[in-house]
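Incident log, structure service

09:12 report received: a user says their structure output differs between two submissions of the same chain.
09:20 pulled the input from the user's history:
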Amino acid sequence: MVSLKKVSTFCLSPKARLTAFVRARLIPKHFPIAYKLAIIMTLLISSSMILLGIFIVNNQTQLLHKQMNHFADTVVEQLADNSKELVMSDDILSLMVVISNLATQNNVLGAVIYSEDGQVLASSGIIPDEAIYRLYSRSSEDSRKKDHFQLQWKTTTADGHPVTAISYITPIKFQNIVAGHALITFSTDEIEDTIRGMVQAITAATIIMILLGIFVSLHMGERLTRPIHSLMNASREISNGNYQYQIKERRNDELGNLTEALNRMASGLLEKTQVENAFSRYVSKSIAKEIMNNLEHIQLGGHHVEASVIFADIVGFTSLSEQHPAEEITSVLNDYFSYITLASKMYQGTIDKYMGDCAMIVFGVPEEDKMHKVHAVYCAVMIQKLVERINRERAKAGKLTVNFRIGINSGTMLAGNLGSTERMQYTVVGESVNLASRLQHIASENQIVVSREFYKDPDIEWRLSARKYRSIHLRGIKEEVYTYVVKDVISLYRDKIEEQINEILQLKPAA
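09:34 re-ran on a clean worker, output below:
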Protein backbone atom coordinates (compact mmCIF):
# COMPACT_ATOMS: atom_id res chain seq x y z
CA MET A 1 0.00 0.00 0.00
CA VAL A 2 1.42 3.37 -0.97
CA SER A 3 2.00 5.72 1.97
CA LEU A 4 -0.16 8.81 2.10
CA LYS A 5 2.92 10.81 3.07
CA LYS A 6 4.57 10.20 -0.30
CA VAL A 7 3.94 11.99 -3.54
CA SER A 8 2.22 9.92 -6.15
CA THR A 9 4.93 8.05 -8.04
CA PHE A 10 3.41 8.54 -11.45
CA CYS A 11 4.24 12.25 -11.19
CA LEU A 12 7.99 11.46 -11.04
CA SER A 13 10.31 11.18 -14.00
CA PRO A 14 11.94 7.77 -14.81
CA LYS A 15 15.29 9.09 -13.52
CA ALA A 16 13.68 10.17 -10.24
CA ARG A 17 11.92 6.80 -9.88
CA LEU A 18 15.24 4.97 -10.49
CA THR A 19 16.97 7.16 -7.89
CA ALA A 20 14.19 6.51 -5.39
CA PHE A 21 14.40 2.74 -6.04
CA VAL A 22 18.18 2.68 -5.56
CA ARG A 23 17.94 4.64 -2.32
CA ALA A 24 15.10 2.51 -1.00
CA ARG A 25 16.32 -0.96 -2.05
CA LEU A 26 20.07 -0.97 -2.68
CA ILE A 27 21.57 1.47 -0.16
CA PRO A 28 21.41 0.02 3.37
CA LYS A 29 19.90 2.25 6.05
CA HIS A 30 22.34 1.01 8.67
CA PHE A 31 25.95 0.01 8.06
CA PRO A 32 27.77 -1.29 11.17
CA ILE A 33 31.07 0.26 12.24
CA ALA A 34 32.60 -3.21 12.33
CA TYR A 35 31.94 -3.60 8.63
CA LYS A 36 33.30 -0.12 7.89
CA LEU A 37 36.46 -0.96 9.84
CA ALA A 38 36.77 -4.23 7.93
CA ILE A 39 36.42 -2.43 4.61
CA ILE A 40 39.00 0.21 5.58
CA MET A 41 41.50 -2.37 6.78
CA THR A 42 40.85 -4.53 3.73
CA LEU A 43 41.43 -1.59 1.39
CA LEU A 44 44.55 -0.59 3.33
CA ILE A 45 45.99 -4.12 3.28
CA SER A 46 45.00 -4.67 -0.35
CA SER A 47 46.51 -1.40 -1.54
CA SER A 48 49.68 -1.98 0.50
CA MET A 49 50.11 -5.54 -0.78
CA ILE A 50 49.36 -4.50 -4.35
CA LEU A 51 51.87 -1.65 -4.22
CA LEU A 52 54.43 -3.91 -2.58
CA GLY A 53 53.77 -6.61 -5.17
CA ILE A 54 54.13 -4.15 -8.04
CA PHE A 55 57.40 -2.90 -6.58
CA ILE A 56 58.78 -6.43 -6.07
CA VAL A 57 57.69 -7.67 -9.48
CA ASN A 58 59.12 -4.61 -11.26
CA ASN A 59 62.33 -4.81 -9.30
CA GLN A 60 62.78 -8.53 -9.89
CA THR A 61 61.81 -8.21 -13.54
CA GLN A 62 64.44 -5.55 -14.08
CA LEU A 63 66.99 -7.66 -12.21
CA LEU A 64 66.17 -10.78 -14.25
CA HIS A 65 66.36 -8.86 -17.53
CA LYS A 66 69.63 -7.29 -16.43
CA GLN A 67 71.08 -10.69 -15.57
CA MET A 68 69.84 -12.18 -18.82
CA ASN A 69 71.26 -9.27 -20.84
CA HIS A 70 74.61 -9.62 -19.08
CA PHE A 71 74.69 -13.37 -19.67
CA ALA A 72 73.57 -13.05 -23.29
CA ASP A 73 76.09 -10.31 -24.03
CA THR A 74 78.83 -12.49 -22.61
CA VAL A 75 77.73 -15.53 -24.64
CA VAL A 76 77.35 -13.66 -27.92
CA GLU A 77 80.69 -11.92 -27.34
CA GLN A 78 82.38 -15.31 -26.75
CA LEU A 79 80.71 -16.64 -29.89
CA ALA A 80 82.04 -13.70 -31.89
CA ASP A 81 85.51 -14.10 -30.41
CA ASN A 82 85.60 -17.88 -31.06
CA SER A 83 84.27 -17.45 -34.60
CA LYS A 84 86.44 -14.66 -35.95
CA GLU A 85 89.35 -16.89 -36.99
CA LEU A 86 86.96 -19.46 -38.46
CA VAL A 87 85.17 -16.73 -40.41
CA MET A 88 88.46 -15.32 -41.68
CA SER A 89 89.59 -18.80 -42.75
CA ASP A 90 86.13 -19.60 -44.16
CA ASP A 91 85.96 -22.79 -42.03
CA ILE A 92 82.22 -23.39 -42.36
CA LEU A 93 82.34 -26.89 -40.87
CA SER A 94 83.92 -25.67 -37.65
CA LEU A 95 81.43 -22.80 -37.52
CA MET A 96 78.56 -25.32 -37.76
CA VAL A 97 80.06 -27.33 -34.89
CA VAL A 98 80.34 -24.22 -32.71
CA ILE A 99 76.79 -23.11 -33.58
CA SER A 100 75.33 -26.59 -33.01
CA ASN A 101 76.96 -26.91 -29.56
CA LEU A 102 75.68 -23.47 -28.59
CA ALA A 103 72.09 -24.13 -29.74
CA THR A 104 71.84 -27.08 -27.34
CA GLN A 105 72.14 -24.86 -24.26
CA ASN A 106 69.10 -24.11 -22.14
CA ASN A 107 66.85 -21.22 -23.29
CA VAL A 108 68.85 -20.80 -26.51
CA LEU A 109 66.42 -20.93 -29.41
CA GLY A 110 69.00 -20.52 -32.16
CA ALA A 111 72.32 -19.08 -33.26
CA VAL A 112 73.69 -17.84 -36.55
CA ILE A 113 76.96 -16.53 -38.00
CA TYR A 114 76.78 -13.99 -40.83
CA SER A 115 79.49 -12.88 -43.22
CA GLU A 116 80.48 -9.22 -43.37
CA ASP A 117 77.92 -8.64 -46.18
CA GLY A 118 75.09 -10.32 -44.24
CA GLN A 119 75.14 -13.80 -45.79
CA VAL A 120 74.38 -16.74 -43.45
CA LEU A 121 77.52 -18.82 -43.00
CA ALA A 122 76.26 -21.18 -40.28
CA SER A 123 73.02 -21.43 -38.31
CA SER A 124 71.16 -23.67 -35.94
CA GLY A 125 67.64 -23.55 -34.40
CA ILE A 126 65.28 -20.61 -34.86
CA ILE A 127 66.79 -17.62 -36.61
CA PRO A 128 65.24 -14.31 -37.79
CA ASP A 129 64.04 -14.13 -41.37
CA GLU A 130 65.25 -10.56 -41.85
CA ALA A 131 68.64 -9.48 -43.10
CA ILE A 132 71.31 -8.67 -40.56
CA TYR A 133 71.33 -4.94 -41.39
CA ARG A 134 67.55 -4.79 -40.93
CA LEU A 135 67.97 -6.44 -37.52
CA TYR A 136 70.57 -3.86 -36.53
CA SER A 137 68.25 -1.01 -37.47
CA ARG A 138 65.32 -2.47 -35.48
CA SER A 139 67.32 -3.01 -32.29
CA SER A 140 66.33 -0.93 -29.26
CA GLU A 141 68.07 2.42 -28.71
CA ASP A 142 69.15 1.71 -25.14
CA SER A 143 70.85 -1.55 -26.22
CA ARG A 144 73.20 0.01 -28.76
CA LYS A 145 76.34 0.24 -26.70
CA LYS A 146 79.71 -1.45 -26.88
CA ASP A 147 78.69 -3.04 -30.19
CA HIS A 148 76.02 -5.10 -28.39
CA PHE A 149 72.57 -4.94 -30.02
CA GLN A 150 69.32 -6.38 -28.72
CA LEU A 151 66.05 -7.14 -30.55
CA GLN A 152 62.81 -8.62 -29.19
CA TRP A 153 60.42 -10.41 -31.57
CA LYS A 154 57.73 -13.09 -31.72
CA THR A 155 58.21 -16.57 -33.17
CA THR A 156 57.03 -20.16 -32.81
CA THR A 157 58.89 -23.33 -31.90
CA ALA A 158 59.00 -26.44 -34.02
CA ASP A 159 55.91 -27.81 -32.24
CA GLY A 160 53.96 -24.60 -32.95
CA HIS A 161 54.28 -23.10 -29.45
CA PRO A 162 54.43 -19.27 -29.59
CA VAL A 163 57.35 -17.73 -27.74
CA THR A 164 58.82 -14.29 -27.19
CA ALA A 165 62.40 -14.29 -28.43
CA ILE A 166 65.26 -11.88 -27.75
CA SER A 167 68.12 -11.79 -30.23
CA TYR A 168 71.53 -10.44 -29.22
CA ILE A 169 73.80 -9.27 -32.05
CA THR A 170 77.42 -8.23 -32.10
CA PRO A 171 79.89 -7.66 -34.96
CA ILE A 172 82.78 -10.11 -35.43
CA LYS A 173 85.84 -7.88 -35.60
CA PHE A 174 89.42 -8.70 -36.51
CA GLN A 175 91.86 -5.84 -35.96
CA ASN A 176 88.96 -3.35 -36.00
CA ILE A 177 87.70 -4.78 -39.28
CA VAL A 178 84.16 -6.25 -39.35
CA ALA A 179 84.58 -9.77 -40.61
CA GLY A 180 81.06 -10.94 -39.85
CA HIS A 181 78.21 -10.90 -37.37
CA ALA A 182 77.19 -13.22 -34.53
CA LEU A 183 73.56 -13.58 -33.38
CA ILE A 184 72.09 -15.68 -30.57
CA THR A 185 68.36 -15.92 -29.87
CA PHE A 186 67.13 -16.66 -26.34
CA SER A 187 63.65 -17.52 -25.07
CA THR A 188 62.00 -15.38 -22.36
CA ASP A 189 59.92 -18.30 -21.07
CA GLU A 190 62.07 -18.79 -17.99
CA ILE A 191 61.84 -15.12 -17.02
CA GLU A 192 58.09 -15.09 -17.63
CA ASP A 193 57.64 -18.27 -15.56
CA THR A 194 59.62 -16.71 -12.72
CA ILE A 195 57.57 -13.50 -12.87
CA ARG A 196 54.33 -15.48 -13.05
CA GLY A 197 55.35 -17.46 -9.98
CA MET A 198 56.12 -14.23 -8.09
CA VAL A 199 52.73 -12.78 -9.04
CA GLN A 200 50.93 -15.93 -7.88
CA ALA A 201 52.83 -15.95 -4.59
CA ILE A 202 52.11 -12.27 -3.95
CA THR A 203 48.45 -12.76 -4.90
CA ALA A 204 48.11 -15.68 -2.49
CA ALA A 205 49.79 -13.68 0.28
CA THR A 206 47.51 -10.71 -0.44
CA ILE A 207 44.38 -12.87 -0.22
CA ILE A 208 45.56 -14.41 3.05
CA MET A 209 46.31 -10.96 4.50
CA ILE A 210 42.94 -9.63 3.35
CA LEU A 211 41.07 -12.52 4.96
CA LEU A 212 43.11 -12.14 8.13
CA GLY A 213 42.45 -8.39 8.14
CA ILE A 214 38.71 -8.89 7.69
CA PHE A 215 38.59 -11.38 10.58
CA VAL A 216 40.64 -9.20 12.91
CA SER A 217 38.79 -5.98 12.03
CA LEU A 218 35.37 -7.58 12.45
CA HIS A 219 36.37 -8.97 15.83
CA MET A 220 37.78 -5.64 16.96
CA GLY A 221 34.80 -3.73 15.57
CA GLU A 222 32.31 -5.89 17.43
CA ARG A 223 34.17 -5.41 20.70
CA LEU A 224 34.40 -1.67 20.20
CA THR A 225 30.74 -1.23 19.20
CA ARG A 226 29.23 -3.56 21.82
CA PRO A 227 28.77 -0.77 24.44
CA ILE A 228 26.86 1.45 22.01
CA HIS A 229 24.40 -1.16 20.76
CA SER A 230 21.88 0.04 23.29
CA LEU A 231 22.32 3.59 22.00
CA MET A 232 21.76 2.37 18.46
CA ASN A 233 18.56 0.60 19.51
CA ALA A 234 17.40 3.72 21.32
CA SER A 235 18.08 5.98 18.35
CA ARG A 236 16.25 3.52 16.08
CA GLU A 237 13.21 3.52 18.36
CA ILE A 238 13.21 7.31 18.59
CA SER A 239 13.59 7.69 14.81
CA ASN A 240 10.55 5.41 14.43
CA GLY A 241 8.54 7.73 16.66
CA ASN A 242 8.71 5.77 19.90
CA TYR A 243 9.61 8.78 22.07
CA GLN A 244 8.63 6.91 25.25
CA TYR A 245 11.69 4.67 24.88
CA GLN A 246 14.24 5.15 27.65
CA ILE A 247 17.66 3.53 28.16
CA LYS A 248 17.76 1.93 31.59
CA GLU A 249 21.50 1.25 31.70
CA ARG A 250 23.58 3.87 33.51
CA ARG A 251 27.31 4.45 32.98
CA ASN A 252 29.84 6.88 34.47
CA ASP A 253 31.74 7.57 31.26
CA GLU A 254 31.17 9.49 28.02
CA LEU A 255 28.64 6.90 26.87
CA GLY A 256 26.71 7.46 30.09
CA ASN A 257 26.52 11.20 29.37
CA LEU A 258 25.35 10.42 25.86
CA THR A 259 22.70 8.05 27.24
CA GLU A 260 21.30 10.73 29.56
CA ALA A 261 21.25 13.27 26.73
CA LEU A 262 19.41 10.81 24.49
CA ASN A 263 16.82 10.13 27.20
CA ARG A 264 16.26 13.85 27.69
CA MET A 265 15.93 14.36 23.96
CA ALA A 266 13.32 11.56 23.73
CA SER A 267 11.31 13.17 26.53
CA GLY A 268 11.45 16.54 24.80
CA LEU A 269 10.39 15.06 21.48
CA LEU A 270 7.50 13.26 23.18
CA GLU A 271 6.26 16.49 24.68
CA LYS A 272 6.67 18.38 21.39
CA THR A 273 4.86 15.65 19.45
CA GLN A 274 1.94 15.68 21.85
CA VAL A 275 1.61 19.45 21.50
CA GLU A 276 2.01 19.26 17.73
CA ASN A 277 -0.61 16.51 17.39
CA ALA A 278 -3.07 18.53 19.43
CA PHE A 279 -2.24 21.69 17.47
CA SER A 280 -2.53 19.92 14.10
CA ARG A 281 -6.20 19.16 14.81
CA TYR A 282 -6.86 22.88 14.46
CA VAL A 283 -4.43 23.72 11.66
CA SER A 284 -2.77 21.53 9.03
CA LYS A 285 0.08 19.34 10.17
CA SER A 286 2.64 21.05 7.91
CA ILE A 287 1.70 24.50 9.22
CA ALA A 288 1.71 23.22 12.80
CA LYS A 289 5.20 21.76 12.27
CA GLU A 290 6.51 25.03 10.80
CA ILE A 291 5.11 27.02 13.72
CA MET A 292 6.53 24.54 16.26
CA ASN A 293 9.94 24.74 14.60
CA ASN A 294 9.95 28.55 14.71
CA LEU A 295 8.37 29.35 18.07
CA GLU A 296 10.84 32.16 18.69
CA HIS A 297 10.11 33.87 15.37
CA ILE A 298 6.30 33.89 15.26
CA GLN A 299 5.19 37.32 14.05
CA LEU A 300 2.76 38.95 11.69
CA GLY A 301 3.82 39.19 8.07
CA GLY A 302 4.20 37.14 4.97
CA HIS A 303 5.92 36.72 1.63
CA HIS A 304 4.84 36.23 -1.96
CA VAL A 305 4.83 32.68 -3.30
CA GLU A 306 3.80 30.87 -6.45
CA ALA A 307 1.13 28.38 -5.39
CA SER A 308 -2.22 26.84 -6.27
CA VAL A 309 -5.48 26.77 -4.33
CA ILE A 310 -8.66 24.67 -4.41
CA PHE A 311 -12.07 25.69 -3.09
CA ALA A 312 -14.39 22.67 -2.66
CA ASP A 313 -17.90 23.66 -1.62
CA ILE A 314 -20.99 21.55 -0.86
CA VAL A 315 -23.90 22.35 -3.20
CA GLY A 316 -27.15 23.31 -1.44
CA PHE A 317 -25.73 23.11 2.04
CA THR A 318 -28.09 25.75 3.49
CA SER A 319 -31.14 23.76 2.41
CA LEU A 320 -29.67 20.55 3.82
CA SER A 321 -28.97 22.26 7.14
CA GLU A 322 -32.59 23.29 7.42
CA GLN A 323 -33.95 19.83 6.57
CA HIS A 324 -31.72 17.65 8.80
CA PRO A 325 -30.66 17.68 12.44
CA ALA A 326 -27.45 19.49 13.35
CA GLU A 327 -25.85 16.28 14.62
CA GLU A 328 -26.40 14.57 11.26
CA ILE A 329 -25.06 17.55 9.31
CA THR A 330 -22.00 17.68 11.55
CA SER A 331 -21.39 13.95 11.01
CA VAL A 332 -21.73 14.36 7.23
CA LEU A 333 -19.27 17.27 7.14
CA ASN A 334 -16.73 15.41 9.26
CA ASP A 335 -17.06 12.29 7.12
CA TYR A 336 -16.56 14.01 3.75
CA PHE A 337 -13.91 16.42 4.98
CA SER A 338 -11.94 13.52 6.46
CA TYR A 339 -11.79 11.88 3.04
CA ILE A 340 -10.86 15.21 1.40
CA THR A 341 -8.01 15.58 3.90
CA LEU A 342 -6.65 12.17 2.92
CA ALA A 343 -6.93 13.06 -0.77
CA SER A 344 -5.03 16.32 -0.26
CA LYS A 345 -2.21 14.50 1.51
CA MET A 346 -1.76 12.31 -1.57
CA TYR A 347 -0.64 15.37 -3.53
CA GLN A 348 1.21 17.46 -0.94
CA GLY A 349 -1.84 19.61 -0.38
CA THR A 350 -2.43 21.52 2.86
CA ILE A 351 -5.88 22.14 4.31
CA ASP A 352 -5.77 25.89 4.84
CA LYS A 353 -9.14 26.06 6.55
CA TYR A 354 -12.71 24.76 6.64
CA MET A 355 -15.21 27.54 6.11
CA GLY A 356 -18.54 25.97 7.05
CA ASP A 357 -19.28 23.67 4.13
CA CYS A 358 -16.24 24.74 2.07
CA ALA A 359 -12.69 23.35 2.22
CA MET A 360 -9.76 25.51 1.12
CA ILE A 361 -6.69 23.51 0.06
CA VAL A 362 -3.35 25.08 -0.93
CA PHE A 363 -0.43 23.55 -2.83
CA GLY A 364 3.13 24.82 -2.68
CA VAL A 365 2.59 26.43 0.74
CA PRO A 366 4.10 26.31 3.31
CA GLU A 367 6.48 23.80 1.67
CA GLU A 368 7.65 24.64 -1.84
CA ASP A 369 6.30 22.39 -4.59
CA LYS A 370 7.34 23.02 -8.19
CA MET A 371 4.49 20.80 -9.41
CA HIS A 372 1.79 22.53 -7.37
CA LYS A 373 -0.44 23.07 -10.42
CA VAL A 374 -0.32 19.41 -11.42
CA HIS A 375 -0.92 18.23 -7.86
CA ALA A 376 -3.84 20.64 -7.43
CA VAL A 377 -5.72 19.48 -10.52
CA TYR A 378 -5.05 15.79 -9.76
CA CYS A 379 -6.32 16.31 -6.22
CA ALA A 380 -9.47 18.02 -7.51
CA VAL A 381 -10.23 15.16 -9.93
CA MET A 382 -9.59 12.67 -7.13
CA ILE A 383 -12.00 14.53 -4.81
CA GLN A 384 -14.64 14.53 -7.56
CA LYS A 385 -14.30 10.79 -8.18
CA LEU A 386 -13.94 10.02 -4.47
CA VAL A 387 -17.18 11.85 -3.61
CA GLU A 388 -18.99 9.89 -6.33
CA ARG A 389 -17.80 6.60 -4.81
CA ILE A 390 -18.70 7.72 -1.27
CA ASN A 391 -22.15 8.85 -2.39
CA ARG A 392 -22.87 5.46 -3.96
CA GLU A 393 -21.92 3.67 -0.76
CA ARG A 394 -23.88 6.06 1.46
CA ALA A 395 -26.92 5.86 -0.81
CA LYS A 396 -26.92 2.07 -0.54
CA ALA A 397 -26.81 2.43 3.24
CA GLY A 398 -29.64 4.99 3.21
CA LYS A 399 -27.41 7.81 4.45
CA LEU A 400 -27.42 11.48 3.47
CA THR A 401 -25.25 12.34 0.44
CA VAL A 402 -23.82 15.65 -0.76
CA ASN A 403 -22.21 16.97 -3.95
CA PHE A 404 -19.31 19.33 -4.34
CA ARG A 405 -18.37 22.05 -6.78
CA ILE A 406 -14.70 22.91 -7.15
CA GLY A 407 -12.71 25.90 -8.31
CA ILE A 408 -8.93 25.84 -8.96
CA ASN A 409 -6.48 28.63 -9.66
CA SER A 410 -2.76 29.32 -9.32
CA GLY A 411 -0.53 32.35 -9.30
CA THR A 412 1.25 34.76 -6.99
CA MET A 413 -0.18 34.81 -3.46
CA LEU A 414 0.72 36.37 -0.14
CA ALA A 415 1.43 33.59 2.38
CA GLY A 416 2.09 34.18 6.05
CA ASN A 417 0.68 35.00 9.48
CA LEU A 418 -2.26 37.36 9.07
CA GLY A 419 -4.46 38.87 11.76
CA SER A 420 -3.34 40.55 14.98
CA THR A 421 -0.64 39.96 17.55
CA GLU A 422 -3.24 38.40 19.84
CA ARG A 423 -4.84 36.17 17.23
CA MET A 424 -3.30 35.28 13.90
CA GLN A 425 -3.73 32.67 11.19
CA TYR A 426 -1.33 31.23 8.67
CA THR A 427 -3.07 31.46 5.28
CA VAL A 428 -2.81 32.73 1.70
CA VAL A 429 -4.56 35.76 0.22
CA GLY A 430 -4.53 37.66 -3.05
CA GLU A 431 -6.26 38.02 -6.41
CA SER A 432 -5.34 34.46 -7.40
CA VAL A 433 -7.07 33.14 -4.27
CA ASN A 434 -10.13 35.32 -4.90
CA LEU A 435 -10.39 34.05 -8.47
CA ALA A 436 -10.33 30.43 -7.28
CA SER A 437 -13.22 31.25 -4.92
CA ARG A 438 -15.18 32.87 -7.79
CA LEU A 439 -14.55 29.87 -10.04
CA GLN A 440 -15.96 27.61 -7.34
CA HIS A 441 -19.11 29.79 -7.11
CA ILE A 442 -19.83 29.58 -10.87
CA ALA A 443 -19.27 25.80 -10.94
CA SER A 444 -22.30 23.56 -11.06
CA GLU A 445 -22.84 20.37 -9.12
CA ASN A 446 -19.91 17.90 -9.52
CA GLN A 447 -17.97 20.33 -11.72
CA ILE A 448 -14.34 21.45 -11.60
CA VAL A 449 -13.82 24.92 -13.09
CA VAL A 450 -10.44 26.47 -13.94
CA SER A 451 -9.39 29.65 -15.70
CA ARG A 452 -8.17 29.60 -19.27
CA GLU A 453 -4.67 30.67 -18.16
CA PHE A 454 -4.52 27.72 -15.77
CA TYR A 455 -5.76 25.21 -18.34
CA LYS A 456 -3.48 26.47 -21.13
CA ASP A 457 -0.37 25.96 -19.02
CA PRO A 458 1.95 23.68 -21.08
CA ASP A 459 2.35 21.35 -18.12
CA ILE A 460 -1.42 21.10 -17.52
CA GLU A 461 -3.29 21.04 -20.82
CA TRP A 462 -1.92 17.72 -22.08
CA ARG A 463 -2.84 16.00 -18.82
CA LEU A 464 -6.55 16.90 -18.89
CA SER A 465 -9.73 16.48 -20.84
CA ALA A 466 -11.71 19.73 -20.61
CA ARG A 467 -14.28 21.88 -22.40
CA LYS A 468 -14.90 25.60 -22.62
CA TYR A 469 -17.27 27.01 -20.04
CA ARG A 470 -18.54 30.52 -19.42
CA SER A 471 -16.78 33.83 -18.97
CA ILE A 472 -17.06 36.02 -15.88
CA HIS A 473 -16.38 39.63 -14.96
CA LEU A 474 -14.36 40.39 -11.85
CA ARG A 475 -14.50 43.61 -9.97
CA GLY A 476 -11.46 45.73 -10.68
CA ILE A 477 -10.59 43.75 -13.88
CA LYS A 478 -11.77 45.09 -17.23
CA GLU A 479 -11.18 41.98 -19.29
CA GLU A 480 -13.39 38.94 -19.05
CA VAL A 481 -12.06 35.79 -17.42
CA TYR A 482 -12.64 32.75 -19.62
CA THR A 483 -13.08 29.40 -17.92
CA TYR A 484 -12.96 25.67 -18.63
CA VAL A 485 -14.67 22.67 -17.03
CA VAL A 486 -12.31 19.79 -16.30
CA LYS A 487 -13.95 16.52 -17.33
CA ASP A 488 -11.18 14.06 -16.45
CA VAL A 489 -7.46 13.34 -16.59
CA ILE A 490 -5.99 11.43 -19.51
CA SER A 491 -6.08 7.64 -19.33
CA LEU A 492 -2.38 7.46 -18.43
CA TYR A 493 -3.19 8.73 -14.91
CA ARG A 494 -6.84 7.69 -14.57
CA ASP A 495 -6.10 4.16 -13.35
CA LYS A 496 -3.56 5.45 -10.85
CA ILE A 497 -6.11 7.82 -9.34
CA GLU A 498 -8.58 4.95 -9.03
CA GLU A 499 -5.95 2.90 -7.19
CA GLN A 500 -5.35 5.77 -4.78
CA ILE A 501 -9.08 6.16 -4.21
CA ASN A 502 -9.32 2.46 -3.34
CA GLU A 503 -6.48 2.98 -0.89
CA ILE A 504 -8.24 5.93 0.75
CA LEU A 505 -11.51 4.04 1.03
CA GLN A 506 -9.75 1.23 2.84
CA LEU A 507 -8.61 3.65 5.51
CA LYS A 508 -10.87 4.68 8.35
CA PRO A 509 -11.12 8.47 8.14
CA ALA A 510 -10.73 10.37 11.36
CA ALA A 511 -14.08 11.68 12.52
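09:41 both user submissions now match this output. Likely a transient worker issue. Closing.
09:42 reviewer note: The first strand starts at residue 108 and ends at 115. The radius of gyration is 44 Å.
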